[in-house]
Design a protein that fits this description.
The structure is a single chain. This protein is α/β, with parallel strands linked by helices and 505 residues long. It folds into three domains: 2-76 and 119-151, no CATH class; 158-276 and 416-428 and 436-487, Response regulator (Rossmann fold, 3-Layer(aba) Sandwich), CATH 3.40.50; 279-405, Response regulator (Rossmann fold, 3-Layer(aba) Sandwich), CATH 3.40.50.2300. Helices cover 36% and strands 26% of the residues. It contains 14 helices and 28 strands. The strands form six sheets. A seven-stranded mixed beta sheet has the order 21-20-22-23-24-27-28, sandwiched between helices. It has a five-stranded antiparallel beta sheet with strand order 3-2-1-14-13, with helices on one face. Strands 6-7-8-9-10 form a five-stranded antiparallel beta sheet, with helices on one face. β6 (74-78) and β7 (83-88) form a beta hairpin.
Length: 505
């Protein structure tokens, strides 16, 4: 976010240097210029040009930079090739000084008059060609020698992104929060003019927590909606189900909060994850249990889905590395309500710590039943447990448990987190959880890549994502490695009287 803000400030400063207040692409724009006059108007606001428009061979030439900024285009100048360029939406226009051949989306086009550098050192370009190419209307008043450019469209086009996750079913809260975070980011971007002059348009689909539904949805995104990129899911099994499709279609995909290590194990180069993985989370949780809580007899209770099985395997390996074997390893299926049989095994084994690796619905039931059955020992939980409506479901049974999370928690007191929490709550109506934040961060990572790429192209955007390093997000800095892993932040917390208390770092 900091880099994005810096870029906005640079644009604003450049606009000030050239006497132009930036026009938001979200608005229609009307530009009026008079031959020989440095006085112009953008949406009826007076602007002083550093070079007046001129007429050559019956065609009007206007200042290159002024026109680009007024129409909301990304502008470029290559001093070696002596080319100027405009990028707006799906339109990429390149002109060469002194040449009557221009290129529009790499296709050669003849000009009536060539762009030129005037004796004043200012570059001027044919206003009608540039304006009409991007879809603007151009009018000429011969009596007043005034040219008017009217661009009525709100945006130059659309950038469609597919967003999927569970919006109904037992995992609906996590998916809904992911969606809210995505929409919050999209709204802010569009209110600031969009990306490359285009409106960012998310297409939301509900998996209902079902991996096969995720496959059907991805087919729709790729071959019907023709999205530029995809985001999702907060449910690892759904991400795993669509990896081959993503790789075959070559679409940039950002995983906000699915933490299963298998997601990027054999990465084809099109999948990027912004949160830390369960490799990091499981080691952090085991290290805390062994080194800080001094646990010796640790039991593992896990969901038998891909996320739970992967977590169980990594916890077991981390315990072995610490010279310990789990005293009990018990799995349960998603939707289980009675955990007493496996909890009695944990009690009989005399475990002094229990690690729960699963999701919030079953996690809350487990915590309640641990208290009801008076199972001794510390309770530690995975990232998936204490999200959603876990606290509502668990009640006071959640007190004194420990957990691991990514780089964001509502308990953070720093200015970045607190300002975001206030802004989000004011707009959306509640305090954001980790899924809200990671959905928000995913959109901003994608937005940075689109701006860096400078064009709406899957390969260019993928390449731009892969180069992102030290990009500040709400959940911490994101730097992608060769496997597409971008986040490494993790924190240990404890629940005390219904409140999260951050312990580490």
């Amino acid at each position: 976010m900091k880099k994005a803000l810096i870029m906005l400030l640079v644009v604003a400063l450049l606009a000030g240097v050239f006497g132009l207040a930036p026009v938001r692409a979200a608005e229609g724009v009307t530009i009026q210029m008079t031959i020989g006059s440095t006085k112009a108007f953008v949406n009826s606001k007076e602007v002083i040009l550093d070079q007046p428009p001129v007429i050559e061979n019956g065609r009007t030439l206007v200042p290159f930079r002024f026109l680009g900024e007024a129409i909301g285009a990304k502008i470029g100048w290559d001093p070696v090739k002596k080319t100027v360029s405009y990028v707006r939406g799906n339109m990429d226009i390149i002109l060469t000084i002194g040449s009557t051949t221009a290129f529009v989306n790499e296709k050669a086009t003849k000009l009536d008059v060539a762009p030129k550098i005037l004796p004043t050192g200012r570059t001027v370009v044919p206003v009608r060609f540039i304006s009409e190419t991007i879809g603007a209307k151009v009018d000429w008043n011969s009596s007043t020698r005034t040219v008017t450019v009217a661009l009525s469209s709100k945006f130059a086009g659309e950038i469609k992104i597919g967003v999927f996750g569970p919006l109904t079913g037992t995992m609906a809260i996590g998916g809904t929060h992911q969606k809210d975070g995505v929409q919050f980011a999209v709204d802010k971007i569009n209110e600031s003019g969009g990306l490359l002059g285009c409106e960012l348009v998310p297409i939301y689909e509900d998996t209902e927590g079902n991996a096969q539904n995720a496959v059907n949805i991805m087919n729709k995104f790729l071959y019907k909606d023709e999205v530029l990129a995809t985001i999702g899911s907060n449910n690892s099994p759904e991400v795993l189900a669509v990896l081959d499709m993503i790789c075959k279609a070559k679409v940039p995909h950002i995983v906000p909060s699915g933490v299963a290590g298998a997601i990027t194990k054999d990465n084809c180069g099109w999948v990027f994850r912004i949160t830390a993985t369960d490799v990091i989370f499981s080691k952090r949780l085991v290290d805390f249990a062994v080194n800080d809580l001094k646990a010796k007899k640790i039991a593992i209770i896990h969901d038998t889905n891909d996320y739970g099985q992967g977590g169980m395997a990594m916890i077991t390996n981390n315990l072995k590395a610490a010279g310990l074997e789990p005293v009990v390893v018990e799995g349960y299926t998603t939707g289980t309500k009675d955990f007493s049989p496996l909890l009695l095994k944990v009690k009989a084994a005399g475990a002094d710590a229990i690690i729960i690796w699963g999701n919030y619905t079953e996690g809350a039931q487990l915590v309640r039943q641990i208290k009801q059955l008076s199972i001794p020992g510390e309770v530690l939980v995975s990232t998936g447990v204490t999200i959603g409506n876990f606290f509502e479901l668990a009640g006071d049974a959640a007190d004194n448990l420990y957990g691991v999370t990514g780089g964001y928690s509502p308990a953070r007191t720093d200015a970045v987190a607190q300002n975001f929490i206030k802004e989000f709550k004011d707009k959306v109506g509640y305090i954001p959880d980790i899924n809200d934040v990671l959905g928000y961060d995913a959109v901003n990572v994608l937005a940075k890549a689109i701006n860096d790429a400078g064009k709406i192209d899957r390969t260019a955007v993928r390449d731009a994502i892969s180069k992102i390093q030290n990009f500040e997000t709400i959940s911490g800095p994101v730097s992608f490695n060769k496997n597409g892993e971008g986040g490494t932040n993790s924190m240990i917390f404890k629940i005390e009287k219904g409140q999260i208390k951050l312990l580490q770092p």
